[in-house]
Write a structure and sequence with these properties.
This protein is α/β, with parallel strands linked by helices. It folds into two domains: 7-98, Beta Barrel (Elongation Factor Tu (Ef-tu), domain 3); 104-235, Nucleotide-binding domain of ferredoxin-NADP reductase (FNR) module (Rossmann fold, 3-Layer(aba) Sandwich), CATH 3.40.50.80. The protein has eight helices and 15 strands. A seven-stranded mixed sheet has the order 10-9-8-7-11-12-15, with helices on both faces. It has a six-stranded antiparallel sheet with strand order 4-3-6-1-2-5. The longest helix has 13 residues, at 121-133. It is globular. It starts with 6 loop residues before the first strand and ends in a 6-residue tail after the last helix. It binds flavin-adenine dinucleotide and FE2/S2 (inorganic) cluster. Flavin-adenine dinucleotide is lined by residues 44, 55-58, 71-74, 76-80, 119, 122-123, 237-240, 262. Keywords: 2Fe-2S, Electron transport, FAD, Flavoprotein, Iron, Iron-sulfur, Metal-binding, Transport. InterPro entries: Cyt_c3_hydrogenase_gsu, Dihydroorotate_DH_ele_sf, Dihydroorotate_DH_Fe-S-bd, FAD-bd_FR_type, FNR_nucleotide-bd, OxRdtase_FAD/NAD-bd, PyrK_electron_transfer, Riboflavin_synthase-like_b-brl.
Length: 276
Protein backbone atom coordinates (compact mmCIF):
# COMPACT_ATOMS: atom_id res chain seq x y z
CA UNK A 1 0.00 0.00 0.00
CA UNK A 2 1.26 3.49 -0.87
CA UNK A 3 -0.39 6.57 0.58
CA UNK A 4 -0.17 8.11 -2.92
CA UNK A 5 -2.03 5.24 -4.52
CA UNK A 6 -4.79 3.83 -2.34
CA UNK A 7 -5.98 0.26 -2.74
CA UNK A 8 -9.26 -0.22 -4.56
CA UNK A 9 -12.40 -1.73 -3.09
CA UNK A 10 -15.50 -2.72 -5.08
CA UNK A 11 -18.81 -2.31 -3.28
CA UNK A 12 -20.60 -5.67 -3.18
CA UNK A 13 -23.48 -4.82 -0.82
CA UNK A 14 -25.15 -1.63 0.37
CA UNK A 15 -27.16 -2.31 3.52
CA UNK A 16 -29.45 0.42 4.83
CA UNK A 17 -29.21 0.74 8.61
CA UNK A 18 -31.14 3.93 9.48
CA UNK A 19 -32.33 6.97 7.50
CA UNK A 20 -28.78 8.42 7.71
CA UNK A 21 -26.54 5.36 8.05
CA UNK A 22 -25.59 2.60 5.62
CA UNK A 23 -23.21 -0.33 5.77
CA UNK A 24 -20.96 -0.95 2.77
CA UNK A 25 -19.53 -4.42 2.20
CA UNK A 26 -16.51 -4.20 -0.09
CA UNK A 27 -14.16 -6.63 -1.88
CA UNK A 28 -10.47 -5.95 -2.52
CA UNK A 29 -9.88 -5.60 -6.25
CA UNK A 30 -6.31 -6.89 -6.04
CA UNK A 31 -6.56 -10.68 -5.61
CA UNK A 32 -3.24 -11.09 -3.80
CA UNK A 33 -4.08 -8.25 -1.39
CA UNK A 34 -7.50 -9.86 -0.80
CA UNK A 35 -5.65 -12.99 0.38
CA UNK A 36 -3.08 -11.28 2.60
CA UNK A 37 -5.05 -8.35 4.02
CA UNK A 38 -5.66 -8.52 7.76
CA UNK A 39 -6.52 -6.11 10.52
CA UNK A 40 -7.13 -6.13 14.25
CA UNK A 41 -10.49 -5.16 15.80
CA UNK A 42 -10.44 -1.44 16.62
CA UNK A 43 -8.31 -0.40 13.64
CA UNK A 44 -9.64 2.02 11.04
CA UNK A 45 -9.10 2.90 7.40
CA UNK A 46 -9.13 6.06 5.31
CA UNK A 47 -11.87 5.54 2.73
CA UNK A 48 -11.82 7.70 -0.37
CA UNK A 49 -14.65 8.91 -2.58
CA UNK A 50 -12.90 9.87 -5.83
CA UNK A 51 -13.10 13.62 -6.49
CA UNK A 52 -14.35 14.33 -2.96
CA UNK A 53 -11.64 13.25 -0.51
CA UNK A 54 -11.06 10.71 2.23
CA UNK A 55 -12.45 10.12 5.69
CA UNK A 56 -11.58 7.86 8.60
CA UNK A 57 -13.99 4.99 9.25
CA UNK A 58 -13.78 2.08 11.66
CA UNK A 59 -13.49 -1.33 10.03
CA UNK A 60 -16.74 -2.89 11.24
CA UNK A 61 -16.49 -6.44 9.88
CA UNK A 62 -15.05 -9.57 11.47
CA UNK A 63 -11.28 -10.05 11.07
CA UNK A 64 -12.13 -13.70 10.30
CA UNK A 65 -13.90 -12.72 7.04
CA UNK A 66 -11.16 -12.73 4.42
CA UNK A 67 -10.95 -10.69 1.21
CA UNK A 68 -13.75 -8.38 2.22
CA UNK A 69 -14.28 -5.54 4.67
CA UNK A 70 -17.33 -3.59 5.81
CA UNK A 71 -17.88 -0.21 7.34
CA UNK A 72 -20.92 1.71 8.47
CA UNK A 73 -21.17 5.35 7.51
CA UNK A 74 -23.24 8.20 8.87
CA UNK A 75 -23.91 11.02 6.41
CA UNK A 76 -22.28 14.12 7.93
CA UNK A 77 -20.55 16.19 5.23
CA UNK A 78 -18.87 16.02 1.84
CA UNK A 79 -17.11 12.64 1.86
CA UNK A 80 -19.68 10.76 3.91
CA UNK A 81 -22.49 12.10 1.66
CA UNK A 82 -20.67 10.74 -1.35
CA UNK A 83 -19.90 7.37 0.31
CA UNK A 84 -23.49 6.94 1.49
CA UNK A 85 -24.67 7.41 -2.13
CA UNK A 86 -22.50 4.63 -3.56
CA UNK A 87 -24.08 1.71 -5.39
CA UNK A 88 -23.14 -1.94 -5.79
CA UNK A 89 -20.23 -2.14 -8.26
CA UNK A 90 -18.81 1.31 -7.44
CA UNK A 91 -15.10 1.57 -6.64
CA UNK A 92 -13.77 3.40 -3.61
CA UNK A 93 -10.24 4.03 -2.33
CA UNK A 94 -8.82 2.54 0.85
CA UNK A 95 -5.70 3.16 2.93
CA UNK A 96 -5.01 1.16 6.03
CA UNK A 97 -5.40 -0.55 8.36
CA UNK A 98 -4.23 2.18 10.73
CA UNK A 99 -4.00 2.67 14.46
CA UNK A 100 -3.95 0.37 17.46
CA UNK A 101 -6.58 -2.13 18.56
CA UNK A 102 -8.54 -3.55 21.48
CA UNK A 103 -6.33 -6.09 23.31
CA UNK A 104 -8.86 -8.95 23.03
CA UNK A 105 -6.22 -11.59 23.85
CA UNK A 106 -5.60 -9.96 27.24
CA UNK A 107 -9.38 -10.07 27.88
CA UNK A 108 -9.56 -13.86 27.57
CA UNK A 109 -11.11 -15.54 30.63
CA UNK A 110 -12.93 -12.33 31.58
CA UNK A 111 -16.46 -10.96 31.40
CA UNK A 112 -16.57 -8.46 28.53
CA UNK A 113 -19.12 -5.65 28.64
CA UNK A 114 -19.65 -4.01 25.22
CA UNK A 115 -21.44 -0.69 25.71
CA UNK A 116 -22.40 1.25 22.59
CA UNK A 117 -24.44 4.30 21.60
CA UNK A 118 -25.75 5.09 18.11
CA UNK A 119 -23.30 4.54 15.27
CA UNK A 120 -20.59 4.05 17.93
CA UNK A 121 -21.58 0.37 17.68
CA UNK A 122 -19.77 0.20 14.32
CA UNK A 123 -16.40 0.94 15.98
CA UNK A 124 -16.72 -2.02 18.36
CA UNK A 125 -18.58 -4.43 16.07
CA UNK A 126 -15.41 -6.12 14.78
CA UNK A 127 -14.35 -6.76 18.41
CA UNK A 128 -17.76 -8.18 19.29
CA UNK A 129 -17.76 -10.46 16.21
CA UNK A 130 -14.23 -11.57 17.06
CA UNK A 131 -15.11 -12.38 20.69
CA UNK A 132 -18.23 -14.30 19.54
CA UNK A 133 -16.07 -16.24 17.05
CA UNK A 134 -13.90 -17.36 20.00
CA UNK A 135 -16.75 -17.36 22.53
CA UNK A 136 -15.31 -20.14 24.75
CA UNK A 137 -12.27 -17.97 25.51
CA UNK A 138 -14.41 -15.40 27.35
CA UNK A 139 -16.40 -15.90 30.54
CA UNK A 140 -19.43 -13.80 29.71
CA UNK A 141 -20.33 -11.41 26.89
CA UNK A 142 -22.78 -8.57 27.49
CA UNK A 143 -23.90 -6.01 24.89
CA UNK A 144 -25.69 -2.90 26.12
CA UNK A 145 -26.71 -0.92 23.07
CA UNK A 146 -28.80 2.23 22.83
CA UNK A 147 -29.85 4.80 20.27
CA UNK A 148 -32.07 7.87 20.26
CA UNK A 149 -35.00 5.98 18.72
CA UNK A 150 -35.84 2.56 17.33
CA UNK A 151 -35.13 3.82 13.78
CA UNK A 152 -31.63 4.88 14.83
CA UNK A 153 -30.52 1.45 16.07
CA UNK A 154 -27.93 0.02 13.66
CA UNK A 155 -27.44 -3.69 12.85
CA UNK A 156 -31.09 -4.54 13.62
CA UNK A 157 -30.69 -7.93 11.87
CA UNK A 158 -27.87 -8.89 14.24
CA UNK A 159 -29.64 -7.58 17.33
CA UNK A 160 -32.55 -9.90 16.49
CA UNK A 161 -30.10 -12.85 16.28
CA UNK A 162 -28.36 -11.91 19.54
CA UNK A 163 -31.71 -11.85 21.30
CA UNK A 164 -32.13 -15.54 20.53
CA UNK A 165 -28.50 -16.49 21.21
CA UNK A 166 -27.15 -18.01 24.42
CA UNK A 167 -23.66 -16.70 23.55
CA UNK A 168 -24.45 -13.09 24.47
CA UNK A 169 -26.66 -11.12 26.87
CA UNK A 170 -28.24 -8.26 24.91
CA UNK A 171 -29.81 -5.26 26.59
CA UNK A 172 -31.16 -2.77 24.05
CA UNK A 173 -32.53 0.63 24.90
CA UNK A 174 -33.87 3.79 23.27
CA UNK A 175 -34.01 7.31 24.69
CA UNK A 176 -37.30 8.35 26.31
CA UNK A 177 -39.76 9.24 23.51
CA UNK A 178 -37.89 7.11 20.95
CA UNK A 179 -39.92 3.97 21.71
CA UNK A 180 -43.12 2.63 20.12
CA UNK A 181 -45.99 0.74 21.78
CA UNK A 182 -44.60 -2.63 20.77
CA UNK A 183 -40.93 -1.87 21.73
CA UNK A 184 -39.67 -4.80 23.78
CA UNK A 185 -36.40 -3.21 24.97
CA UNK A 186 -35.63 -0.69 27.69
CA UNK A 187 -36.40 3.02 27.61
CA UNK A 188 -33.63 5.21 29.03
CA UNK A 189 -30.17 6.61 28.29
CA UNK A 190 -27.36 4.05 28.09
CA UNK A 191 -25.63 5.17 31.34
CA UNK A 192 -28.95 4.99 33.28
CA UNK A 193 -29.63 1.49 31.98
CA UNK A 194 -26.05 0.55 32.91
CA UNK A 195 -26.67 1.88 36.41
CA UNK A 196 -29.73 -0.45 36.69
CA UNK A 197 -27.67 -3.35 35.39
CA UNK A 198 -25.09 -2.73 38.16
CA UNK A 199 -22.20 -4.54 36.40
CA UNK A 200 -19.79 -6.33 38.74
CA UNK A 201 -16.18 -5.23 38.23
CA UNK A 202 -14.54 -8.51 39.29
CA UNK A 203 -12.72 -10.15 36.37
CA UNK A 204 -14.47 -7.75 33.98
CA UNK A 205 -13.50 -5.32 31.25
CA UNK A 206 -15.62 -2.79 29.36
CA UNK A 207 -15.40 -1.60 25.77
CA UNK A 208 -17.34 1.64 25.29
CA UNK A 209 -18.08 3.66 22.16
CA UNK A 210 -20.64 6.32 21.35
CA UNK A 211 -21.05 10.09 21.41
CA UNK A 212 -18.44 11.81 23.66
CA UNK A 213 -20.99 12.71 26.38
CA UNK A 214 -22.25 9.12 26.50
CA UNK A 215 -18.68 7.81 26.85
CA UNK A 216 -17.93 10.29 29.64
CA UNK A 217 -21.00 9.41 31.74
CA UNK A 218 -20.71 5.68 31.04
CA UNK A 219 -17.08 5.65 32.23
CA UNK A 220 -18.15 7.50 35.41
CA UNK A 221 -20.85 4.88 36.10
CA UNK A 222 -18.39 2.03 35.55
CA UNK A 223 -15.84 3.65 37.89
CA UNK A 224 -18.57 4.16 40.54
CA UNK A 225 -19.29 0.44 40.32
CA UNK A 226 -15.65 -0.38 41.00
CA UNK A 227 -14.22 -0.83 37.47
CA UNK A 228 -10.59 0.28 37.27
CA UNK A 229 -9.96 2.91 34.56
CA UNK A 230 -7.30 0.63 33.03
CA UNK A 231 -10.04 -1.98 32.39
CA UNK A 232 -12.28 0.45 30.47
CA UNK A 233 -11.44 0.87 26.76
CA UNK A 234 -12.81 3.33 24.26
CA UNK A 235 -11.98 4.56 20.77
CA UNK A 236 -11.69 8.23 19.82
CA UNK A 237 -12.82 9.82 16.56
CA UNK A 238 -10.70 12.99 16.27
CA UNK A 239 -10.58 14.51 12.78
CA UNK A 240 -7.83 12.96 10.65
CA UNK A 241 -5.99 13.68 7.43
CA UNK A 242 -2.87 11.54 6.95
CA UNK A 243 -3.62 8.66 9.37
CA UNK A 244 0.13 8.24 9.72
CA UNK A 245 1.22 10.57 12.53
CA UNK A 246 2.59 13.16 10.07
CA UNK A 247 0.09 16.01 9.65
CA UNK A 248 -0.74 16.84 13.29
CA UNK A 249 -4.47 17.02 12.55
CA UNK A 250 -5.53 14.51 15.20
CA UNK A 251 -3.30 15.24 18.16
CA UNK A 252 -4.27 15.70 21.80
CA UNK A 253 -1.24 17.18 23.54
CA UNK A 254 1.64 14.91 22.51
CA UNK A 255 -0.59 11.99 21.57
CA UNK A 256 -1.51 11.29 17.93
CA UNK A 257 -4.91 9.59 17.86
CA UNK A 258 -4.18 8.00 14.44
CA UNK A 259 -0.93 6.38 15.59
CA UNK A 260 -1.10 6.04 19.40
CA UNK A 261 -4.87 5.36 19.26
CA UNK A 262 -7.69 5.37 18.34
CA UNK A 263 -8.11 2.86 21.22
CA UNK A 264 -7.30 4.24 24.68
CA UNK A 265 -8.10 3.16 28.21
CA UNK A 266 -10.02 5.53 30.49
CA UNK A 267 -6.80 5.68 32.57
CA UNK A 268 -4.88 7.04 29.54
CA UNK A 269 -7.63 9.53 28.73
CA UNK A 270 -7.56 10.79 32.33
CA UNK A 271 -3.96 11.93 31.62
CA UNK A 272 -4.97 14.00 28.57
CA UNK A 273 -4.97 17.84 28.76
CA UNK A 274 -7.82 19.08 31.00
CA UNK A 275 -10.07 20.50 28.25
CA UNK A 276 -10.24 17.19 26.41
C1 LIG B 1 -10.76 6.56 13.86
C2 LIG B 1 -12.08 7.06 13.35
C3 LIG B 1 -13.11 6.17 13.10
C4 LIG B 1 -14.33 6.65 12.62
N1 LIG B 1 -15.30 5.73 12.35
C5 LIG B 1 -16.45 6.14 11.80
C6 LIG B 1 -17.43 5.18 11.40
O1 LIG B 1 -17.25 3.96 11.54
N2 LIG B 1 -18.55 5.64 10.82
C7 LIG B 1 -18.79 6.98 10.63
O2 LIG B 1 -19.85 7.33 10.08
N3 LIG B 1 -17.89 7.91 11.01
C8 LIG B 1 -16.73 7.53 11.58
N4 LIG B 1 -15.79 8.46 11.91
C9 LIG B 1 -16.10 9.89 11.72
C10 LIG B 1 -15.89 10.25 10.25
O3 LIG B 1 -14.49 10.20 9.98
C11 LIG B 1 -16.43 11.69 9.97
O4 LIG B 1 -17.83 11.70 10.10
C12 LIG B 1 -16.06 12.09 8.55
O5 LIG B 1 -14.68 12.35 8.50
C13 LIG B 1 -16.81 13.32 8.12
O6 LIG B 1 -16.33 13.63 6.83
P1 LIG B 1 -17.19 14.46 5.78
O7 LIG B 1 -16.28 14.89 4.66
O8 LIG B 1 -18.43 13.74 5.41
O9 LIG B 1 -17.63 15.71 6.65
P2 LIG B 1 -16.95 17.15 6.72
O10 LIG B 1 -17.53 17.97 5.63
O11 LIG B 1 -15.48 17.01 6.84
O12 LIG B 1 -17.50 17.61 8.14
C14 LIG B 1 -18.89 17.83 8.42
C15 LIG B 1 -19.05 18.19 9.89
O13 LIG B 1 -18.67 17.07 10.73
C16 LIG B 1 -17.61 17.45 11.60
N5 LIG B 1 -16.65 16.31 11.64
C17 LIG B 1 -15.95 15.83 10.61
N6 LIG B 1 -15.19 14.79 10.99
C18 LIG B 1 -15.41 14.62 12.30
C19 LIG B 1 -14.90 13.72 13.27
N7 LIG B 1 -14.00 12.79 12.98
N8 LIG B 1 -15.35 13.88 14.52
C20 LIG B 1 -16.23 14.83 14.84
N9 LIG B 1 -16.76 15.70 13.97
C21 LIG B 1 -16.34 15.60 12.72
C22 LIG B 1 -17.00 18.68 10.98
O14 LIG B 1 -16.41 19.49 11.96
C23 LIG B 1 -18.19 19.34 10.36
O15 LIG B 1 -18.93 20.08 11.29
C24 LIG B 1 -14.55 8.04 12.41
C25 LIG B 1 -13.52 8.94 12.67
C26 LIG B 1 -12.29 8.46 13.13
C27 LIG B 1 -11.18 9.42 13.36
S1 LIG C 1 -4.09 12.20 11.08
FE1 LIG C 1 -2.23 13.14 10.56
S2 LIG C 1 -1.11 13.04 12.42
FE2 LIG C 1 -2.91 11.90 12.85
Amino acid sequence: MSIYSPDLLKVSEVLPETSEIITLVMDFQDGSLAKRFSFKPGQFGLFGAFGEGECALAIASSPFTKGQIACSIKKIGKVTSSLTSTNVGDIIGFRGPYGNWFPLDEMKGKKVFFIAGGIGFSAIRSSLLSVLENRNDYKKVVLLYGARSIDELVYKRELAEYEKSSKIDLIKTVDPGGESKDWDGKVGFVPSVLEELAPKPENSVAIVCGPPIMIKITVAVLVQHGFKRKDIYTTLENRMKCGLGKCGRCNIGKVYVCKDGPVFTAAEIAEFPPDY
